[in-house]
Amino acid sequence: MLRFTDEELEQMALVEGALEMTAAIDPAFPTGWVRLQLNKLAQEAEHALMDEPNPHLRLEGLIRLFYREWGFCGDQQQYFSSENVFLDKVLERKKGIPVSLGAIFLYLAQHLDLPVSSVGFPTQFILKVDWYDGEQQYINPFDGEYLSKRTMGAWLKGHRGPFTELRQEHLDEADNADILTRWLTVMKSALLREEHFADALRCSDMALEFSPGDPHEIRDRGYIYQQLECSHVAAMDYEYFIEQCPEDPAAELLKLQVQALNEEPLTLH
């Protein structure tokens, strides 16, 4: 469904990969309008900060512009809404989640020649600033605040357990493909929660382009097929998961699901 190779994906801006991915999932997605809005924001940022030669102050200016003057912010009330993952809605509402807000901020930072990159931190998407003197800073794109390693270590302990230690690998720059895979997972979950099963199915199919044969993704696709009343196709996906992951706690429950699904009459869609 994606029209470019992994190498081409890494060479483009993260936000551009997200646009291509979203357009493949939703044919009605207004890609042209989103590109126009991003270009307008980039031009405004360049105009506002063109006279600031100091890159540290230019970054501070972009943070102020993005989060205070333009009013972009994390959506505290409806964090898991699909409106927070589709970039047209994020630009309209000026609300999003770390990955959608971060992708827009990263696009603007790159236009301003700022050394900002993506980090797929285990708890959420964050931004890393690699300054030319070797100093590193980390930004939470949900609110534009700087993150200390102590804070990120606490996040990690809350996510993986009290004995988990923050390591450099947690802070390494992430490939676009890895970030888009996580973005796709969030998008699929939001669409499932809102019962947009056809769009969720396209998310699942695309996720399998990134990770062919992933049994957990195929299990999830089986659930979507079941919601779409494609019982026998759902059973086939469940059977694949059971075969690949026989020790998984879900396997025994899915065996019962498969039996029930196979007893249903075949429906042609």
TrEMBL record:
Residues 34-184 form the Protein SirB1 N-terminal domain. It comes from the Bacteria. InterPro entries: SirB1_N, TPR-like_helical_dom_sf. SUPFAM superfamilies: TPR-like. This is Protein SirB1 N-terminal domain-containing protein. Belongs to the UPF0162 family. Coiled coil: none annotated. It comes from Photobacterium proteolyticum.
